[in-house]
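Hi R.,

Here's the chain you asked about this morning:
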Amino acid sequence: MTILSLILALLLEQLRPISSRNRFYLAFTRMANSLERALNAGEYRNGVYGWLIATVPLLVISVAGYWLLVGLSPFLGLAWNVVILYLTMGFRQFSHSFSGISKALQVGDLETARALLADWTGQHTSQMSEDEVARFAIEQGLLDSYRYVFGTVFWFVVLAWLAGPVGAVLYRAASLLAQKWSSHEQVSPFGRCAAGVLAILDYLPVRFTAAGFAVMGDFEDAVYCWRSQAQAWGNYAQGIILAAGAGAIGIRLGQALHMDHTVKFRPELGLGDAANANYLASAVGLIWRSILLWLAVVLLFSLGKWLA
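And here is the predicted structure, written out as tokens:
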């Protein structure tokens, strides 16, 4: 049921993409904002309370719904898995912006590419050059592929035996709460719980994702960049994804970037050519090959379980 749920959810998401600003995400975001306003008294324990209030009901609903429906019919349990995966996972939640930027750069429309990148990332991009737009888009695409696909898929597969889609719900909720409560450079005591939970959940899937990039790209360069460059990035988990992805594609990411009306100096990640618009398709290809690799691995494990 696990592999079938993943395939059906991916097909559904390709046929009818769901926006990252859909009503469910917006409702959860509003609840997270309300909890922060109500509970944030500058103490760590308040962040723990807020995290539990925000996530436990969702986990209970996902578990109860799965066991209730699978008790009625395995097909209803499968449908529940697909619906929850459809809401929590999705390549198309960010690939639309990525594709639009690629098309705009191909025809030399830098202003449109900047506008699409700004809407996607929420950053000021008006001073970025064409190569900077391409480089930042590739970075965001690699990170979003992890958040929206690989991280969610990993925890869905790991916990599917326990209670259907609970792993996907757990990871998506933890990711959104960390984004809302601990996205600043200086994390407040209230946001440390959300940041800590996400760091724990990220530990294994980040490394599996980087390994997938290495296998489906330039293996030696990906592993070398991962081991030698990732720690220089401010966020180590992101550094692993970006360094391995850059090495696998054969490009250089990071470096100076014109953003927020200033120049941000960042470590260089990767080897090879400077990232430009020509490599956007290579980044998408790497992500899709890695998704297929993960599906193949899950299929092998499922077959082994069925035959045991």
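One quick note: The mean pLDDT is 89.

Cheers,
M.
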